[in-house]
Write a structure and sequence with these properties.
The chain has 310 residues and is mainly alpha-helical. Helix content is 75%, strand content 0%. α2 packs antiparallel against α3 (49-73), α6 runs antiparallel to α8 (159-168) and α8 (159-168) packs antiparallel against α9 (173-196). The longest helix has 30 residues, at 278-307. It holds the Pfam family UbiA.
Length: 310
């Protein structure tokens, strides 16, 4: 299906606010907002509440702009994938031109006002994040390499670093490790999903690792990335944003995550078909808790340090 085919779809006369909001990928934006907020509050420099609110808002708008531009460019493959076919563009509720205009406008607005409200390091990091996700990942490498999820994960890992930079005007070891936490979490999270929705990527001819290298190789990649993730996640506990609570959470969740990755890795194809990918689904559900629990622990540690004198 070509991009041109979407021009014959119904115009946006019945489009609602929710259709335009859906272009911003609100579920992804939730993660962006949360991790950026944690990066901002975990920083060793206090920020006025109003400026902090503005910083998180502009980072969220930048993330939403990336989502709109991604949907604009990927509208052809969204139409043939079951889990994305109801998105606003393939559903005929919003045109590609409207999505492009919204994405570009929000990108410029978010970058400029984040720079003005906080500092230009934060604004520059946000601009680079949008560019990386839209141009490097979506337009260039997503359809060329089975490492697309690894590359795309880098863009989603920047928000805590941007939040930290908005507060401090600097990049630190702690902010880089928060970036690594999200970056290394993304591949096992999405590859586990890809294992039981593989036909979507087959139909869309997206070179997901499950399609190009098969399930056996995908399981091995999940295990390798989970081992790397555990090392960085626990290491973050020994920086200025860590502490006893964070370390307890990290040790428990990474033990469970490693066990889940090992359970996936050791199974054969016959077993996977027989139990309908039960281990992969369990691992995927755990991955949803994993990142929020780690950043939640960082947030609590920041609160204890700031308000409890610890």
């Amino acid at each position: 299906m070509t991009d041109a085919s979407f021009e014959t779809r119904p115009e946006t006369q019945d489009a609602q606010f929710g259709d335009y909001f859906a272009l911003l990928k609100p579920r992804v934006m939730t993660l962006v907002v949360f991790t950026a907020f944690v990066g901002l509050l975990a920083a060793p420099v206090g920020v006025h509440p109003f400026l902090g609110f503005c910083a998180v808002l502009f980072i969220a708008l930048g993330g939403g702009a990336s989502g709109a531009l991604n949907m604009w460019y990927d509208s052809d493959i969204d139409a043939v994938m079951k889990r994305t076919a109801k998105r606003p563009i393939p559903a005929g509720k919003v045109t590609r031109d409207e999505a492009l205009a919204l994405g570009l406008t929000l990108s410029a607005f978010a970058v400029v006002f984040l720079g003005l409200a906080t500092n230009w390091l934060a604004g520059g990091l946000l601009a680079f994040t949008i560019f990386f996700y839209v141009v490097i990942y979506t337009m260039w490498l997503k359809r060329l390499t089975p490492q697309n999820i690894v590359i795309g994960g880098a863009a989603g890992a920047f928000p805590p670093m941007i939040g930290w930079a908005a507060a401090t005007g600097e990049i630190s070891t702690a902010s880089v490790l928060m970036f690594c936490l999200t970056f290394l979490w993304t591949p096992p999270h999405f590859w586990a999903l890809a294992l039981f929705v593989r036909m979507d990527y087959d139909n869309a001819t997206v070179p997901m690792l499950t399609v190009t290298h098969g399930r056996r190789a995908t399981r091995t990649h999940i295990l390798v990335y989970t081992i790397l993730l555990a090392a960085f996640a626990i290491g973050l506990g020994f920086t200025q944003v860590g502490g006893p609570l964070y370390l307890a959470v990290a040790l428990l969740l990474n033990a469970l995550f490693l066990k889940g990755a090992f359970d996936i890795w050791r199974r054969d194809e016959a077993a996977s078909e027989a139990d309908n990918f039960r281990a992969e689904k369990k691992f995927f559900k755990l991955s949803l808790l994993y990142l929020f629990a780690h950043f939640g622990a960082i947030l609590v540690e920041a609160g204890l340090s700031r308000f409890g004198g610890l």
